[in-house]
Amino acid sequence: MVDILVFGPHPDDAEFAMGASLLKFIREGRTATICVLTRGESGTYGTPEIRENEMKEACRKMGANLEMLQFRDCQIFDNFENRLTLAGVIRKHRPKVIFAPYHTNHGSHLDGTAHPDHTATGTLVRFAARYAKFKGIAELKQKPWPASHLIYYMLPRSLKPNLVVDVSDYMTEWEEVTSSHQSQMQLRSGTVLKYLKDVRAMYGMLAGRQYAEGFFIEEPVVFNIDLFL
C-alpha cells in the first residue's frame, strides 16, 4: 500500500509536471510510487535505455518507488485491455490518492502537454480507477481497491487549476531531480527548465505564492475550516 500513485506516460512527465509537489509529499513522510507506461522510445532525444536510467535516478533522488510498464510510446490507446492493466496496477499498490495527466487537451501540435499519450493515459486512469474497485471483473485477480481521490496534473492551458500546492521551498531540490533527465534538457531549444519554472511561477501567482504546481479534481472536496484559520 502507498499513499500516492502517479501515472506518467513517459519518463520525466511526473517530475516535469508535478515533481516539486511529489518532493514535498515525500519529505513530509508520504510514500509514493510512479508508474511509467513507456520508455519514450519515439521521442527525439535519448534512447529507451537512457530514458529508463534517467527515470530511475530521478526516483532515487526523490525517494519514490518506480514501476515501468510495457506500453509503446505514441501507441497508448483507451481500450478494455489497457484499462485492466492500469486497474491491476492500482490494485497492486492500493494508493490513497491517484494522480494522472488531465484527460482532455485541445492544444496544438506545438503544445507539449497536448501529446496524445498524455490525454490517453488520463482517460485510461479515469476508467481504471473505477474498474479497480469493481468486485465482479473476472480478469482482475487482486482484491478490489477504491482509491479515495483521482487528481489530475499536466493541465491544458485553457483549464484553471482548482487545487494548487505551494512548492516554493522545494524548487532547488526539484531542479536537481529534473536534471536527472539530461537527455530531455534539449527540449524547447534548451529552455525547458526555464519554461517549467515559469509555469510554476504562474500557478504561484494565482495563489499568492512564489511557486506552485496546479492540479484539477473533478469531485467536490470536503471543506475543512481549519485549512483557512
From TrEMBL:
<dbReference type="InterPro" id="IPR024078">
    <property type="entry name" value="LmbE-like_dom_sf"/>
</dbReference>
<dbReference type="Pfam" id="PF02585">
    <property type="entry name" value="PIG-L"/>
</dbReference>
<dbReference type="GO" id="GO:0016811">
    <property type="term" value="F:hydrolase activity, acting on carbon-nitrogen (but not peptide) bonds, in linear amides"/>
</dbReference>
<dbReference type="InterPro" id="IPR003737">
    <property type="entry name" value="GlcNAc_PI_deacetylase-related"/>
</dbReference>
<protein>
    <recommendedName>
        <fullName>LmbE family protein</fullName>
    </recommendedName>
</protein>
